[in-house]
Amino acid sequence: QVQLVESGGGLVQAGGSLRLSCAVSGGSVSRNDMGWYRQAPGKQRDFVARSTRGGWTNYADSVKGRFTISRDNAKNTATLQMNALKPEDTGVYYCHAKDLLGVNYWGQGTQVTVSS
């Protein structure tokens, strides 16, 4: 059973940076597609970024050029580097993994708040 634990959220001023980490246990990052989603208050959970096991990445249009997803197979972690943060980036950020069987896993989420 894959378990995901996010860390690195917090409060930051607009224009600042945060780095989110997702620690993976019970499975190997190298065998999973890894991703990040976010949910603003009162809204649905939206896609942010994805890194496939084959090395392909893609991003939501709203974060392109500002966010970078990466993975460290040795540490079994996935990270989301967020730069030039905007108030509209505020929300709970969730780490996501999909294994070789197509099973989805979610972390518990970490709060990111960007003040104007």
Report on this model:
The chain is mainly β. Helices cover 0% and strands 54% of the residues. It has no helices and eleven strands. Strand 4 and strand 5 form a beta hairpin. The radius of gyration is 13 Å and the shape is globular.
* Terminal CA distance: 40 Å
Q: What share of the residues does DSSP label as strand, in percent?
A: over 45%
Q: What is the number of E strands? A: 11
Radius of gyration: 13 Å
Structural class: mainly beta
Helix content: under 10%
Question: Order of SSEs, N→C?
Answer: EEEEEEEEEEE
Q: What summary fits the major beta sheet? A: 7 strands, mixed
| Contiguous helical run count | 0
Mean pLDDT: 96
Low-confidence stretches: none
> What global shape is seen?
globular
Main attributes of the structure:
11 strands, 116 residues, seven-stranded mixed sheet, four-stranded antiparallel sheet
The gist of it:
This protein has strands at residues 3-7, 10-13, 18-25, 33-39, 45-51, 57-59, 67-72, 77-82, 91-98, 104-106, 110-115.
Mind sketching the topology for me?
Blueprint: E1 3-7, E2 10-13, E3 18-25, E4 33-39, E5 45-51, E6 57-59, E7 67-72, E8 77-82, E9 91-98, E10 104-106, E11 110-115
Parallel strand pairs: 2-11
Antiparallel strand pairs: 1-3, 3-8, 4-5, 4-9, 5-6, 7-8, 9-10, 9-11
